[in-house]
Specification:
The complex is a heterodimer of chains A (297) and B (426). Chain A is mainly alpha-helical. Chain A contains twelve helices and two strands; from the N terminus they run H-E-E-H-H-H-H-H-H-H-H-H-H-H. In chain A, strand 1 and strand 2 form a beta hairpin. With 426 residues, chain B is of the alpha+beta class. Chain B has two domains: 26-145 and 299-369, D-Maltodextrin-Binding Protein, domain 2, CATH 3.40.190.10; 148-295 and 377-420, 3-Layer(aba) Sandwich (D-Maltodextrin-Binding Protein, domain 2). Helices cover 46% and strands 16% of the residues of chain B. Chain B contains 19 helices and 15 strands. Chain B has helices spanning 2-22, 27-30, 51-64, 78-84, 97-102, 110-115, 125-131, 163-176, 191-200, 217-231, 244-250, 271-278, 312-325, 328-336, 344-352, 358-364, 379-382, 384-396, 402-420; strands at 38-44, 68-74, 89-93, 106-107, 132-133, 136-137, 139-146, 148-152, 180-183, 207-208, 211-212, 260-266, 282-285, 298-306, 340-341. In chain B, the strands form four sheets. In chain B, strands 1, 2, 3, 4, 7, 14 and 15 form a seven-stranded mixed β-sheet that branches. Classes of the chains: A mainly alpha (297), B alpha+beta (426). Chains A and B meet through helix 1, helix 6 and helix 11 of A and helix 1, helix 4, helix 11, helix 18 and helix 19 of B.
Chain lengths: 297, 426
């Protein structure tokens, strides 16, 4: 039944859409990006010739504008990764555990409520948070001042408040996605394990630590990796809420790569920056992978 | 081997099919449209309220024509699209013109303007200064949108003309309520206008050998005026962020919870919103003298001819379109959209109906004092560090010293030098 030329042709046809789109939209841009990064490529003037590793050297040489852009962007992005990943994972887990323990009739309602913010565009999210956190007469400041605070907080124009605003906006916006993954993982935990834990006299914490956590650990690791990648790609919130300020302190690496390409016209430099960013992300994720699975091996 | 060949054949086939499907191409290549008319693609960034007014001019031209058709594309990121596509006409901001010239993306427009019967004398000198590079007309000037002053007549009876007037207004308002200020100085947004305005009002030339030389002690002194406006004279509340000058103007004072200002030095594009809120109580006037001399700064729109346009028929069509646009009865639409045209016959019409074209008229009053942006390569990038970092420090750091500011200005200048060095033609 599954033999002969017809079977082979059909199997090739069935798999070919994936192969084609993989080549067109992943492999080809990647190869092109690597190739461009070795060239002096100006967006206006085009390819001005092969320069070898010069673009990388310029990015990594202290005192150049490209080094300043890359290092500032990288530092800001790493800062955001460090402050955003723990709340994005832990709050999502907390919400998932709460929903998991709700009566069945409420589960769907709350799951939808927490997930719905994820479907909103970053433009709308930014508009909401700009209004909420406006220094002059913003909603949050009005509430805080009604509660007795003397001076308005400059949420968008001073650090650490600007990062805090970006963090709150990001958590509100994206928490639903991680929460859904945790809910699915919790649904997979065998209920008999909890019954056994109950018989052994385990409390809520004991059940979580000895039953739930080991069962959802792999999904949790996947969520951490996905969240690190998402935080590395920070762009919309800092572009639209703080516009990189105050004093370029929320300029993310992606924003600075965009500046190199579309502001300075340096496509070669921008491609080299993007590849360096990819390498850094790969190293960090590899390290995470190694740290997470070292013990189990 | 046979299997690999099969795969290769399949992939190549699908690539060819996809390539075949892509078809089309830019209108610049197509020459004539389906209606047989010569098509002229015109790309601009008029995605705001003014877009409809430019469209009105284009639609009227198309309706009047049986030989040419202008296809107008209003795109938010029109510069990126322009660089990667082929168009026949493009709107370029005055401060970007030198960059596009040096990149070889635009060409001398003199012959097209001659064909259109448009002369240099048809324009205010401020417009000509913007488009004339190395004594060559690289574009036709459309408008100038300088820093504009709005004032709320509920608080201010007469438009302030000097810094002293602003201080006086502030004293009066502060006596009424601690939440009322004369004006707001933002930390980001329109800060380039503020920084170049104060340079112009102190007679400081920032251009040096193709780069922006910010590291001048007199410029540091001039910038410190904005610091003093916030921290010493306190004519502005502290901590205003993006577009803070306009947002504070539009707020209503709320006992310690929100500040309100009586005056806004802002962009003319905010006129619609301000007019809607304040109606007849909105005053519009040229900006006051804050530095040692009167000068205005802002940006401008110009229409340039892309370097790739060589076709005689198209060039004739472009000339026809410009001839149509640069007539007072057509270009007045642009003034109706809130922009101040630099075309003198149109300006006469604006002046004759100054109540109707309030913002265009008031801004045209600043043309005689207008100082355009220094013509340097990648102006926007050269000033980026100043826009994003230095000005914010000036207005948010209470204990900022001139020495500390000079160090920042030296850093900004070093960056500007490096950007200038990337110019393809030196």
């Amino acid at each position: 039944m599954y033999k002969g030329a017809s079977y082979k042709i059909w199997s090739v046809l069935m798999v070919s859409p994936f192969i084609i789109f993989f080549l067109l939209f992943w492999a080809l841009p990647l190869v092109l990006g690597i190739w461009i990064s070795f060239h002096n490529w100006n967006v206006s003037a085009g390819n001005l010739g092969f320069v070898g590793l010069d673009n990388y050297k310029m990015i990594l040489t202290s005192g150049t504008i490209y080094n300043d852009l890359f290092m500032t962007g990288l530092k800001n992005t790493l800062y955001f990764v460090v402050i955003s990943v723990p709340p994005l994972v832990l709050i999502a887990l907390g919400l998932a555990l709460i929903i998991d323990n709700l009566p069945d009739k409420f589960k769907t309602i709350y799951r939808t409520i927490f997930f719905i913010s994820y479907s909103i565009s970053v433009t709308a999210v930014s508009a909401i948070f700009l209004w909420l956190f406006n220094n002059n007469g913003g909603f949050i400041n009005n509430v805080l001042m009604s509660l007795g605070m003397k001076e308005a907080v400059n949420w968008l124009g001073e650090q650490p408040y600007a990062w805090l605003t970006i963090l709150i906006a990001t958590v509100w916006w994206t928490i639903g996605f991680n929460m859904m993954l945790f809910i699915n993982a919790l649904n997979e935990v065998d209920s008999s394990l909890y019954e056994a834990a109950d018989l052994d006299g385990a409390g809520a914490w004991g059940k979580f630590w000895y039953v739930t956590f080991p069962q959802i650990k792999n999904v949790g690791f996947f969520i951490v990796i996905m969240t690190v990648i998402a935080s590395f790609n920070l762009y919309g919130q800092t572009r639209l809420i703080t516009n990189g300020g105050p004093e370029q302190s929320t300029n993310s690496l992606i924003m600075n790569i965009q500046t190199s390409v579309f502001g300075m016209n340096q496509l070669g430099i921008g491609s080299a920056m993007a590849l360096l960013m990819g390498i850094i992300m790969t190293v960090i994720l590899g390290l995470q992978y190694w740290l997470s699975y070292r013990k189990t091996d | 081997m046979k299997t690999i060949s099969k795969w290769l054949a399949l992939v190549v086939t699908v690539f060819l099919v996809l390539a075949g499907c892509s078809g089309g191409g830019d209108s610049a290549d197509s020459g004539k449209g389906e209606n047989g008319k010569v098509q002229i693609s015109f790309i601009n960034g008029f995605t705001g309220g003014d877009g409809a007014y430019m469209k009105k001019i284009t639609d009227a031209f198309n309706a009047s024509q049986d030989k040419y058709e202008v296809v107008e594309l209003q795109e938010k990121d029109h510069y990126t699209k322009f660089k990667s596509g082929e168009y026949d006409l493009v709107v370029i901001h005055g401060n970007n013109l030198e960059t596009y010239k040096q990149d070889g993306l635009i060409q001398d427009m003199s012959s097209v303007l001659e064909k259109a019967g448009i002369a240099e004398t048809d324009f205010h000198q401020a417009g000509i200064d913007t488009v004339k590079l190395d004594d060559t007309m690289y574009a036709v000037p459309l408008d100038i949108h300088p820093l504009t002053m709005f004032y709320n007549k509920e608080f201010v009876q007469e438009a302030p003309k000097t810094y002293e007037d602003l201080v006086k207004i502030n004293d009066e308002l502060q006596a009424q309520s601690k939440d009322l200020y004369a004006l707001g100085v933002p930390s980001s947004g329109l800060v380039e206008f503020y920084m170049l305005m104060i340079a112009a009002q102190n007679g400081i030339d920032l251009e040096k050998d193709g780069y922006l030389n910010f590291a001048q002690p007199e410029y540091a002194e001039a910038l410190m005026q904005f610091h003093d406006m916030v921290w010493k004279d306190k004519v502005s509340p502290a901590g205003l962020g993006l577009d803070g000058e306009f947002q504070t103007f539009m707020k209503e004072a709320q006992e310690g919870k929100a500040y309100q200002t009586a005056v806004a030095l802002t962009g003319p594009w905010f006129y619609g919103g301000a007019k809607e809120k304040y109606g007849d109580n909105l005053g519009v006037a040229p900006i006051p003298q804050i530095g040692s001399q009167l000068a205005a700064y802002g940006n401008s729109h110009t229409i340039a001819l892309p370097a790739n346009v060589k076709d005689e028929e198209k060039l004739a069509g472009i000339a026809e379109y410009l001839k149509f646009m640069y007539t007072p009865e057509n270009l007045i639409n642009w003034a109706d959209g809130g922009q101040a045209p630099v075309h003198l016959p149109t300006l006469e019409k604006v002046t004759a109906e100054q109540e109707k074209y309030q913002i265009a008229y008031q801004n045209s009053q600043q043309f005689d004092d207008y100082v355009s942006a220094p013509q340097v390569y990648q102006f926007g990038e050269q000033i980026r560090y100043m826009n994003e970092s230095v000005f914010s420090k000036v207005v948010t750091t209470e204990k900022l010293t001139t020495d500390a500011l000079m160090k920042e200005l030296e850093k900004a200048t070093e960056m500007a030098k490096q950007i200038a060095a990337t110019a393809p033609q030196q």
